[in-house]
Amino acid sequence: MIRTAMGGDSMTGSLTGPTPRIAKLEGASTSKSRYPISPYEAERAAKFHSARDRDQYIVVHARLRMILAGYLGLSPDLIEFGYRLHGKPFLASPRSIGFNLSHTRGLALVAIGRELELGIDLERLRGNFAVSDLASLTFAQDELLSFYSLSPDLQTRCFFENWALKEAYAKALGVGLRLDFRKIKRAKIPSALLPIDLEYAAALSVLTKGSYSVRFYELGNQVPDFSVAVPKAEISLNFDIC
Question: What CATH number does residue 86 fall under?
Answer without folding.
Answer: 3.90.470.20
